[in-house]
Amino acid sequence: PLWPGRALGSGAASAPPRPPRKRGADHAGGRARAGAVPFPRRKCAAGLALTRRQHGGAGAGDLSRVLLPEPGAGRPELEFRTGRAFGLRHVLFRGALRPAAPSTELVSGGSDNQVIHWEIENNQLLKAVCLHGHEGPVNAVHAVYQRRASDAAALHILIVSAASDSTVRVWSKKGSEVTCLQTLNFGDGVTLALCLSFLPDTDVPVLVCGDDDCKIHLFVQQNDQFQKVLFLRGHEDWIRGVEWATFGKDLFLASCSQDCLIRIWKLYIKSTSLDSQDDDSIRLRENTFIIENENGVQQQPMRLLSASMDKTMILWAPDEESGVWLEQVRVGEVGGNTLGFYDCQFSEDGSMIIAHAFHGALHLWKQSAANSKEWTPEIVISGHFDGVQDLMWDPEGEFIITVGTDQTTRLFAPWKRKGQSQVTWHEIARPQIHGYDLKCLAMINRFQFVSGADEKVLRVFSAPRNFVENFCAITNQSLNHVLCNHDGDLPEGATVPALGLSNKAVFQGDIATQPSEEEQLLTNTGFEYHQVAFQPSILTEPPTEDHLLQNTLWPEVQKLYGHGYEIFCVACNNAKTLLASACKAAKKEHAAIILWNTASWKQVQNLVFHSLTVTQMAFSPNDKFLLAVSRDRTWSLWKRQDTISPELDPIFTLFAFTNKITAVHSRIIWSCDWSPDSKYFFTGSRDKKVVVWGECDSSDDSIEHSIGPCSSVLDVGGAVTAVSICPVLNLSLRYIVAVGLERGKICIYTWKKTDQVPEVNDWTRCVETSQSQSHTLAIKKLCWKNCKGKTEQEEGEGAEWLHFASCGEDHTVKIHKVNRSALQWT
């Protein structure tokens, strides 16, 4: 069977766009702004609250899936698709109400104006209920369990949601029935944060809303309707976070704002009668303290956690004698190109804290059992925080390299713990952190690749020694065996010079001459830009985010100039001697394919045929042909000519092509691939068609050859964005074809040529991904793993298991495994 994919990508969410300011301005004085605030809680499980940064508009750069990670494992324990085409702005996770109840519930709000309630049991999504009504993106959600006076025997879920349409909606859910109880209108204001709790020693819900009017609004529910009882003044800028917490019989409220302050309010009841209109019937006492950090508040004993754009999280606790809240622990990042934390959260028992950062990264710290004031970084999932555009397996099938429009190249590999059978995949290196959106890559050899971005230059990178050492330690391989084919003059690592884009190699001598910290302090005038230096280290487990940013870059060894516009696709032949590249083009002269010699990095030849952008290229497995597909809805096939001397560069000539008359596809051709025997090639297009072409005879010496479809036209029911052919056949000697669609689904077919004219029943649909296994946005690349790799044997898997990887615009990378004989999902 084909098992659910391991999600390697999708970094944590970033912040939503800041609405136009209506009141006040950023205060002077250089203080950071305060944001959302988590309290450790005793009563109900606190969830990981995520907000998604929009890139340019609604629906762009979205996070439309939910990953519930297993702490310390670095992999999702549960993953499901939200079913939305827009960004996920806020999620709230609730544990089971009673220990006997195995189900958990989750509430999410998105930029599609919807609130969705999810119910999960045994890592399976049972059902989802959509709550419609908002007319703008949802900013915040919260929920509590409630027993209503009219139906005390039944348990209801009280849900509140705030949206940019200036309303807060109150919902009640019982079973699968959802009712909107009330809509609170805030006029021209916008509620940015809200939280529900209960008045002390009662079942009366109390709602707090933090608004852009710098006020905190309190509501108490009476007869299923929330009545505004008072508002709290004090903050001088937008309220970014509010959180209730119960300590004994006391109810505390924490609020944080962009005025750099966190305020602690204590609520107590002066009068038990809620019918009284006296504002003094509910009183709050206030404790205010200034912070130097910006975002986020949560209790285990009585503690408060805040996260900030100054790249720190601070754990606060009240002094036993004075009651003043003081800083207890500060954790965070130093250096790098990060821009701080957006939110934070406690674990259920308060022993772990987590934050998510501007660039999508999650940061996890765990409290030491021996020293309660010592917190150490822990392993957590990581991945791209924007669309993943391309991926490649290394020739041995032991790691994956990916590139994305988050301007990073990332390397994922399995972590094999010594003496343990558990294997999990993690990001172990970030070879390239660029200034342009990355579009494509090609592996030259196991530790060398070429990447193309939204620039005219191709860049070549080679692995440094420190990466190879860490790769062997994490994947439990022999260093001497891995380095046997590499020269001994490998650089130790790489660093980026000030104001530079190129990764500069760092050798052993460069590390030895770096000044000590004391020398830097003596010579520092306070005005210099200090280059972040590479620091070699040997790891036995996957690195943390700060290590990935600073110490896992690969040196750039070559730049390739020749294209007139942004690079769009690149491919390398199987002998690793020839590289083909193409750029965006609107004219024939710019749509030329450039061939490069990978030994000298000199241009070998320009192949001119297409009139618009070449979208993908593929060399045949025997390296006799080069196939190119284009936005002009045609393909071209180039054949390598034999040379007199093997030292001479090969020459390619046009062997076959389609034009407007012979073309089968009516829309842009996005993808192409070859059968493992080099006889046939496959094309996939936006017109929902997959077509097989051939046969391709490498012994035919005619200048131009007519090659037509040799299969029936396969209509997959959606725009095709990726096609990949398995390097081995199934047990019936049929080709295994993976097809990726624009809507995120992956379908697997088998194909075999028949003797019928026209071809009939040559395609067999085997299986497709379920909703939770599919990507949520367009699939950009599918890639089967080389079956000659050693990973399957080391993991105890036989030759019947096949692996392929997928990546998409939903920021994720997935690895799927297929049972060669069954070809069914499980």
Describe this structure in words.
The structure is a single chain. This protein is mostly beta strands and 826 residues long. The chain has 6 helices and 56 strands. Among the domains are: 13-18 and 27-271 and 280-373, Methylamine Dehydrogenase, Chain H; 563-710, Methylamine Dehydrogenase, Chain H, CATH 2.130.10.10. The strands form 15 sheets. It has a 4-stranded antiparallel beta sheet, with no helix packed on it. The protein has a 4-stranded antiparallel beta sheet with strand order 4-5-6-7, with no helix packed on it. Strands 8-9-10-11 form a 4-stranded antiparallel beta sheet, with no helix packed on it. Residues 1-6, 12-36, 40-65, 95-102, 276-281 and 289-300 have low confidence and may be disordered.
Please write out the topology.
Blueprint: E1 3-7, E2 65-70, E3 75-81, E4 88-94, E5 104-110, E6 115-121, E7 124-131, E8 138-148, E9 151-163, E10 167-174, E11 177-185, E12 191-198, E13 205-211, E14 216-222, E15 225-232, E16 239-247, E17 250-257, E18 261-269, E19 282-290, E20 295-297, E21 304-307, E22 312-318, E23 325-332, E24 341-346, E25 352-357, E26 362-367, E27 375-378, E28 388-393, E29 400-404, E30 408-416, E31 423-433, E32 438-445, E33 448-453, E34 458-462, H1 465-475, H2 479-482, E35 493-495, E36 504-506, H3 508-512, H4 517-523, H5 545-551, E37 556-560, E38 567-572, E39 578-583, E40 593-597, E41 603-607, E42 614-619, E43 625-630, E44 635-641, E45 651-657, E46 669-674, E47 680-685, E48 689-694, E49 714-715, E50 720-725, E51 735-741, E52 746-751, E53 763-768, E54 779-784, H6 791-794, E55 801-808, E56 813-819
Antiparallel strand pairs: 1-56, 2-3, 4-5, 5-6, 6-7, 8-9, 9-10, 10-11, 12-13, 13-14, 14-15, 16-17, 17-18, 18-19, 20-21, 21-22, 22-23, 24-25, 25-26, 26-27, 28-29, 29-30, 30-31, 32-33, 33-34, 34-37, 35-36, 38-39, 39-40, 40-41, 42-43, 43-44, 44-45, 46-47, 47-48, 48-49, 50-51, 51-52, 52-53, 54-55, ...
